[in-house]
Design goal:
Blueprint: H1 2-7, E1 11-19, E2 22-29, H2 50-56, H3 63-72, E3 74-76, E4 91-93, H4 101-113, E5 117-118, E6 130-133, H5 147-150, H6 157-169, E7 174-177, E8 180-184, E9 187-188, H7 198-208, E10 211-212, H8 214-219, E11 226-227, E12 239-240, H9 256-260, E13 273-276, H10 281-286, H11 289-294, E14 307-309, E15 319-321, H12 331-348, H13 390-403, E16 405-406
Helix pairs in contact: 4-12, 12-13
The structure holds flavin-adenine dinucleotide (FAD).
């Protein structure tokens, strides 16, 4: 395990030009270990909206087609009608062994005050514009529900060494016998070659193997086996502003204590509420005609700059950029500014609210109604929506550009769909232009 861990990249680093004349490196964290992201993820339970599945427009992969599999993977311990969920799957979905109930309830109440009411089952695939007390990928004892242990990869010693071997051998490239995938370095002639290396790992491995954008492969000296330009397109990840005020990081809590006591707080991920919200029609209109023309739709409208491509060896730096805030219409940044204001209106109405944290607050001018406030013992009285000026909008925008981070949910490379839409795999997950992969 240790050896494998050390041979895989921990993070993918990216240099993005976010502010004119300045540049900042954004990091996409990924789980470079057995179980991948599921071994380090935040355990937050959510499901894709049905419109997302249906937008793939691939027979056999609609929301209706996917629902039996969504049920099959879970043992659901949450609220809501049983029709939407599964009760015999390997992954437990549970409310957690610990919750910060007071602030959670205040959030639900405050969101309700501005029209986002509590929805019992926000994961019904079409529920929207509501909040829910969050569920987690944890067992009823608070244990992480990771892919490696829940799918029994670790159930016997023999099986431990098998996926471990594959991880290591897969790490360079797929071998082709003419157009047929025939092995992963030292494992010749299997019936089928599967490369489960995640949205970040797959493009590099397959481009090193000759499947990808011919231009990029030529530059890297790789012979073309299949011309699949989509391999280095369509990468998507979403952005957020985030800051940790963690008791362990802050030195207020020794991590050893809760571990020794098997404390219930170990089953907590500090996310007690979750929500899905969209701008209203009036808000969309206020964001301008460019935004209106493109909404609702794919929020990642900056594909021209998003790609991930080949390096000659596994440790070579990938050519990679998220494309955050780079679309000329400014739709991506406008969405972020809208979300900043909206979450502020919820927090300002929480009974627990006592003002903003200076380290997390954009530097509005002291005259702005959005300027930093700190309250003493009482929540804010008679809260009205802040009316932001154009200058305030600019402050939020600059702050977002300077502080935005990536959010761990990489997807989209090696896209499934018709080949003419520069997709890379078909509805049966076979790569176009070759066999057995
Ligand atoms: C910090 C973090 C927090 C997250 N929080 C949540 C959350 O709360 N809720 C949620 O639903 N999702 C969350 N996610 C996202 C979720 O973990 C991923 O979407 C999911 O794990 C993707 O699964 P995957 O199988 O596609 O790829 P991965 O889980 O990335 O698995 C890819 C595997 O391939 C291996 N690999 C890569 N390159 C090579 C190579 N060259 N050779 C051999 N092996 C290779 C990797 O080591 C890894 O084991 C989080 C992710 C991260 C990183």
């Amino acid at each position: 395990m240790e050896e494998i861990y050390e041979t895989l990249p921990d993070t993918i680093r990216e240099v993005d030009v976010l502010i004119l004349g300045d540049s900042r490196e954004l990091i996409v964290p990924c789980g470079s270990t057995l179980g991948g992201g599921s071994s380090i993820k935040l355990m937050m339970y959510s499901r894709t909206q049905q419109s997302d599945y249906n937008s793939w427009n691939v027979p056999g992969w609609s929301a209706e087609d996917m629902t039996p599999y969504l049920r099959k993977l879970e043992t659901y311990h949450g609220p809501g009608p049983r029709t939407f969920h599964g009760f015999n799957g390997p992954i437990n979905v549970f409310g957690g062994t610990y919750r910060a109930n007071r602030s959670g309830s205040h959030f639900v109440q405050a969101a309700g005050n501005i029209g986002y009411h509590e929805i019992e089952n926000l994961t019904s695939l079409d529920a929207n514009n509501g909040v829910q007390r969050a569920l987690k990928y944890t067992g009823t004892d608070g244990t992480r529900q990771d892919a490696a242990s829940r799918y029994s990869i670790l159930s016997s010693r023999v099986e431990i060494s098998e996926p471990a071997c594959r991880c290591k051998l897969a790490s360079k490239r797929v071998i082709f016998d003419n157009k047929r995938a025939s092995g992963l370095e030292y494992r010749p002639n299997p019936k089928l070659v599967v490369v489960p290396s995640g949205a970040l790992g797959i493009p590099s491995i397959l481009e090193r193997s000759g499947l990808g954008n011919p231009e990029d492969m030529k530059k890297a000296g790789v012979d073309v086996v299949a011309d699949l330009p989509g391999a280095s397109e369509n990468y998507q990840v979403h952005h957020l502003l985030d800051e940790t005020i963690d008791a362990i990081v802050g030195g207020r809590l020794d991590a050893g204590e809760p571990i020794q006591e098997s404390a219930a707080i170990l089953g907590w991920n500090a996310m007690d509420t979750t929500c899905k919200i969209r701008p209203t029609d009036a808000e969309v209109a206020a964001l301008g005609p460019d935004f209106q023309a493109l909404f609702p739709g794919d929020p990642y409208l900056a594909p021209a700059l998003q790609y991930f491509t080949v390096g000659l060896d596994r440790d070579d730096k990938a050519k990679f950029t998220t494309g955050f805030f780079s679309d000329i219409q400014g739709v991506d940044i406008k969405k972020h500014v809208w979300a900043y204001k909206k979450q502020g209106e919820i927090f300002r109405r929480m009974e627990t609210y006592r003002g903003e944290l200076p380290i997390l607050h954009p530097p509005f001018s002291p005259e702005s109604p959005a300027t930093l406030i700190q309250l003493n013992d009482e929540p804010a009285p008679n809260v009205m929506d802040i009316v932001y000026t154009l200058e305030d909008d600019q402050v939020i925008e600059d702050y977002a550009r300077a502080h935005v981070e990536t959010t761990w949910h990489s997807l989209g490379t090696y896209k499934m769909g018709p080949r003419e839409e520069i997709s890379v795999i078909d509805a049966k997950l076979n790569a176009y232009g070759v066999e057995g992969l």
